[in-house]
Amino acid sequence: xxxxxxxxxxxxxxxxxxxxxxxxxxxxxxxxxxxxxxxxxxxxxxxxxxxxxxxxxxxxxxxxxxxxxxxxxxxxxxxxxxxxxxxxxxxxxxxxxxxxxxxxxxxxxxxxxxxxxxxxxxxxxxxxxxxxxxxxxxxxxxxxxxxxxxxxxxxxxxxxxxxxxxxxxxxxxxxxxxxxxxxxxxxxxxxxxxxxxxxxxxxxxxxxxxxxxxxxxxxxxxxxxxxxxxxxxxxxxxxxxxxxxxxxxxxxxxxxxxxxxxxxxxxxxxxxxxxxxxxxxxxxxxxxxxxxxxxxxxxxxxxxx
Amino acid sequence: xxxxxxxxxxxxxxxxxxxxxxxxxxxxxxxxxxxxxxxxxxxxxxxxxxxxxxxxxxxxxxxxxxxxxxxxxxxxxxxxxxxxxxxxxxxxxxxxxxxxxxxxxxxxxxxxxxxxxxxxxxxxxxxxxxxxxxxxxxxxxxxxxxxxxxxxxxxxxxxxxxxxxxxxxxxxxxxxxxxxxxxxxxxxxxxxxxxxxxxxxxxxxxxxxxxxxxxxxxxxxxxxxxxxxxxxxxxxxxxxxxxxxxxxxxxxxxxxxxxxxxxxxxxxxxxxxxxxxxxxxxxxxxxxxxxxxxxxxxxxxxxxxxxxxxxxxx
Lengths: 305, 314
Fold this sequence. Notes:
The structure holds two protein chains of two kinds. Chain A is mainly alpha-helical. Chain A is built from 14 helices and no strands. In chain A, helix 3 (42-55) packs parallel to helix 5 (80-94), helix 5 (80-94) runs parallel beside helix 7 and helix 7 (113-127) packs parallel to helix 9. Chain A starts with a helix and ends in a 36-residue tail after the last helix. Mean pLDDT of chain A is 85; it is low at 5-16, 286-291 and 293-305. Chain B is mainly beta. Helix content of chain B is 5%, strand content 47%. Chain B contains two helices and 22 strands. Chain B has helices at residues 2-8, 293-302; strands spanning 9-11, 27-33, 42-49, 56-60, 64-70, 72-81, 95-99, 106-108, 113-116, 123-129, 135-143, 152-156, 160-165, 169-179, 192-197, 205-211, 215-221, 228-236, 244-251, 255-259, 264-273, 283-289. The radius of gyration of chain B is 36 Å and the shape is elongated. Chain B starts with a helix and ends in a 12-residue tail after the last helix. At the A-B interface, helix 3, helix 5 and helix 7 of A face helix 2 of B.
């Protein structure tokens, strides 16, 4: 009897604990996670920003202005000083006025790290002569598009972009002017948002098939065009393209010649989704939900000149 | 006496040989000539200033007089002196006259004008000056340094004339005039000048531009006839719209090189010039000096703020 009682007690206790683990801790864990995510090292950011302004010889600002800037930067939560400094120095070095560079640095100081990283990486590669050598306005709008205005997974699009830039720059057999390759890179990077793991792998698969496989053996430009036209149909488009092509070329299928079969396959590939566009796959940490709401906090008297 | 006096009176102007106080009227040389009378031994000429003051008296044995007098209005009278006796005839009726400062005022081309020639070999220059009263004709003399000994000289009845001259020279010109009475006078007229520039130089053709982050070399093709190039470099930040002058230079070569220009937008203007030629229209080119990849990477690394924040108190 005593044994039974102890067993019953243990059973009841375990049931109680199991119930707590399943419900309350989950809510608590989420809240703790959220709290951690939303906590800001504001003092650290203030000090970092101020010390940066004081110590940088390129920035000719008075102590008073430096303090106001630091104050504003500290609103941007953890990492704001780093983001501010990186964007400011990159844009200043690129040839922007102090005023504009500062304005944009403030903007990016309030956005997550990966948005700022996308911006600096994409602007750099688009603007400088060694890569795409675009005009400032074009490079800037592209960098905005693929950073703060981007709807898909920012990490994937950055990796896609950098990988495709490398493909353009190092592609010895590509025999394609950099400006044309840049156009394809941008077009392809814009499709990245429809692909769970980015566009680079599906692109290489298609491009290499079109170039290498005997039945295609297409030139560089046609391969790039065709790859883009298929990929814009979304992740299912590749399968649809190849199966449509295979069926179209078969004698007991449609019995089309190659060019007609290709057109048919592209048409099928572009019907791989419903709606206006394939579904956009956002990143794990979609930044627009984590951006601090700063408008209500801004102090009118503490505006940075 | 009055008759010959009135017809032979003339005055002529010579540049003042000495300076007077500001209030003193300028001095001019007058020449007066009258009909001679062989029976007389000499003449006394009197100039009576209209505004009063000391009368001017001159004695001469000839029937003419050349004297320097202050400008102004006078009454002139002459009387003859007997040959062997100190006896004078009655004074002639006074003749009013004015000693005025008459001079040539150039209208076309203006003195020290710089004129751009429209033609390659010869350019017609129109000369015009303020007309002078009672002038019978003008003598125009035009010369250059090369043609100092063989100037162009021609006579005209009006106050304007034309002359075809080759461009690319500095020209000097004078106008002398003869009175309506037909008397020519020794003159020291003012010399005017103008520069007739040769035909406009062609704009230099800018290119190639060798722009990289470290060195910037701007070249242009030579403009025929140009000896120097006036080059201006303007700068603006990438986000700005207004240009600001950054550097300027006068170059004899057709390249302008820089090292490590500040990053941003640039505009270069080059004007071809040559002595006595019309400068070319400016040739304009724009370029951007961008940072290198390494430079931006370095900027990103250097921008890392130091973490000097105090640690939280635990």
